[in-house]
Write a structure and sequence with these properties.
mainly beta, Alpha-Beta Plaits, two-stranded antiparallel sheet, 1 helix
Amino acid sequence: MADHVNVITDECIACGACEPECPEGAISEGDEIFVIDPDLCTGCDDCVAVCPVDCIVPRE
């Protein structure tokens, strides 16, 4: 069980840097920004490390 699940905020610039970094395939391109499937996210934070605008945060 994950300690936390991440979410991508509206500050996302849709650069796509996060998607290939997710080992679980939880990140996909949404209508305007990338989104994280909470059922697949394990909270590994690999995506957080590569986000150029720091828009990936723990879900409240």
